[in-house]
Amino acid sequence: MIPDRPLEVLKAIVRDYIASKEPVGSKSLVERHSFGVSAATIRNDMAILEEEELIVAPHTSSGRVPTDKGYRMFVDQLSEVKPLSAAEKVAIEGFLSKSSDLDETLSQTVRLLSQLTNQVALVQYPSLGRASVRHIEIISIDEKRLLLMLITDSGRIQQHVLEIPGGYESGDVEKLRNMLNESLTGKGLAEVSAIAKTIAQKVTGKIKLLAERVTPELLALVDANSQEKILLAGTSNLARRED
């Protein structure tokens, strides 16, 4: 169990190092912070932190810098989170209420985080390994083009425009859409490939040609859902911080 004062020293080291990008020594800690103890006492506290692998000396006789473990403790236990004001909450709710699907919601979120913090913001998509099919839609655009849409239970919507060189019958589109939804709705994305291929093998005639065109595109949408995705915003804040 680390005593309270060494933890306060760790908090000060993390903040000073982030601000100055220079190793932090006991003398500067005493000068910048109101610990009410001598530099020698602060050095003893820093020795405790070093033994716990929370700080490290990058060079001989230099100050100390936080380790990954030290940063993690700072984030998990020591940093103070400022509550959102009523105005900020209203602004966030209004900002996100305009989002119509998962992609737009996360895109709005990462931009909002960057604006609120004046920092670079990263948002990782939720893991869709366990996502399932909510609905598959096939919409006619014109005589030779269809819009294929995959909607998952997570709210994510993937879509792709298909070219059908030989054209298609509207009745076949409806039949194929119904078959896909009857077979795939509620199924996990990992199950879609085998089931969709079975459907394409069972049908005959013109609808088979349509199924053979639609199935690979549907599987491509499934694959896009299963890939890890990260959104980034606020990189311009880096340049401002360097100025």
Would you kindly provide a written description of the structure presented here, covering whatever features stand out?
The protein is α+β, with helices and mostly antiparallel strands and 243 residues long. The protein folds into three domains: 4-78, Winged helix-like DNA-binding domain superfamily/Winged helix DNA-binding domain (Arc Repressor Mutant, subunit A); 86-125 and 229-242, no CATH class; 133-226, 2-Layer Sandwich (Enolase-like, domain 1), CATH 3.30.390. It is 55% helix and 15% strand. The chain is built from ten helices and seven strands. It has helices at 4-20, 26-32, 39-51, 68-78, 86-97, 102-117, 170-184, 189-202, 206-226, 236-242; strands at residues 55-56, 65-66, 121-124, 133-142, 145-152, 157-163, 230-233. The strands form three sheets. A three-stranded antiparallel sheet has the order 4-5-6. The protein has a two-stranded antiparallel ribbon with strand order 1-2. A two-stranded antiparallel ribbon has the order 3-7. Strand 5 (145-152) and strand 6 (157-163) form a beta hairpin. Helix 2 (26-32) crosses helix 3 and helix 7 packs across helix 8 (189-202).
